[in-house]
């Protein structure tokens, strides 16, 4: 059985990972956070001290082993789920993910990971490139002030303070880089359903998407 494939794309802070993870929990499906994979490559590149601007430096991916297990992400046997959220990774991940070689490697891994069972996969190019035949494609959005506020709240919860204007600036920078790169830019697949979450709670978004998967299944 190939299973149900649900693709969720959208810009930073639109709620992709939170919503996808909750849907997977509720339905007993597997969640694959592709952003975490690009972050893991970025972390490894920083640690290897390679020239981040040179695409050829990323050939370490031929032998590196980035994988998912039980909602945790690993480089070889090392759990890097928390480490991939650091500032250096966040500031460089859009650069790293703009290289065709890096994307080719990760898209291969993602397509393989999606083959078995019911999957919810979130990222930027899932509906357009990784799972073009997905059963349901959702594109989440929210206005930039709301997305920045969500990130700001996350920082506060971790006991960190952040300047709102700086958070907005960083998000806009990443949106711009992700939407304008040559290789599979962030864009809405022609058959995706656009869901603006600016004024929706997490639960409302989760229920709405589950309702849409039910409709597609019947
Ligand atoms: O911070 P946020 O959770 O929004 O980002 P993420 O999902 O962790 O993804 C980090 C970065 O990885 C994005 O800004 C993109 O540059 C890149 N990415 C990508 O290019 N393609 C994907 N399918 C997923 C992420
Ligand atoms: O993965 P992405 O960057 O798209 O977003 P996220 O990391 O899942 O969500 C960013 C933050 O927004 C999380 O702290 C969520 O709890 C919050 N959120 C929210 O407050 N309301 C929503 N409708 C969706 C997410």
Describe the structure.
- GO terms for molecular function: ATP binding; dCMP kinase activity.
- InterPro entries: Cytidylate_kin, Cytidylate_kinase_dom, P-loop_NTPase.
- This is Cytidylate kinase.
- It catalyses: dCMP + ATP = dCDP + ADP; CMP + ATP = CDP + ADP.
- ATP binds at residues 10-18.
- The protein is globular, with a radius of gyration of 17 Å.
- The chain has one domain: P-loop containing nucleotide triphosphate hydrolases (Rossmann fold, 3-Layer(aba) Sandwich).
- A 5-stranded parallel β-sheet has the order 2-6-1-7-8. Strands 3-4-5 form a 3-stranded antiparallel β-sheet, with helices on one face.
- The model has no long low-confidence stretch (mean pLDDT 94).
- Helix content is 47%, strand content 16%.
- Helix 2 (34-48) crosses helix 3 and helix 6 (144-157) packs across helix 7.
- A hairpin with a 2-residue loop joins strand 4 and strand 5.
- The chain has 8 helices and 8 strands, in the order E-H-E-H-E-E-E-H-H-E-H-E-H-H-E-H.
- With 218 residues, it is an alpha/beta fold.
- One cytidine-5'-diphosphate binds at residues 12-13, 17, 34-36, 38-39, 93-94, 97, 123-125, 174, 178.
């Amino acid at each position: 059985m190939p299973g149900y494939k649900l693709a969720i794309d959208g810009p930073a802070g639109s709620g992709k990972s939170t919503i996808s993870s909750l849907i997977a929990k509720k339905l007993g499906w597997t969640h694959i956070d592709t952003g975490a994979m690009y972050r893991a490559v970025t972390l490894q590149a920083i640690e290897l001290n390679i020239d981040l601007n040179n695409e050829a430096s990323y050939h370490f991916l031929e032998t590196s082993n980035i994988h998912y297990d039980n909602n945790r992400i690993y480089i070889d046997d090392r759990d890097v789920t928390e480490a991939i959220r650091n500032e250096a990774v966040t500031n460089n991940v859009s650069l790293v993910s703009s290289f065709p070689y890096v994307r080719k490697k990760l898209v291969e891994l993602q397509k393989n990971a999606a083959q078995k069972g019911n999957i919810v996969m979130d990222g930027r190019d899932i509906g357009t490139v990784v799972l073009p035949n997905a059963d349901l494609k959702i594109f989440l959005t929210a206005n930039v002030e709301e997305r920045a506020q969500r990130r700001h709240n996350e920082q506060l919860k971790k006991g960190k303070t952040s300047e709102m204007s700086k958070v907005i600036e960083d998000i806009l920078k990443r949106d711009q880089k992700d939407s304008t790169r040559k290789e599979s830019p962030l864009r809405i697949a022609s058959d995706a359903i656009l869901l603006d979450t600016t004024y929706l709670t997490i639960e409302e978004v989760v229920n709405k998407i589950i309702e849409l998967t039910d409709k597609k299944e019947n």
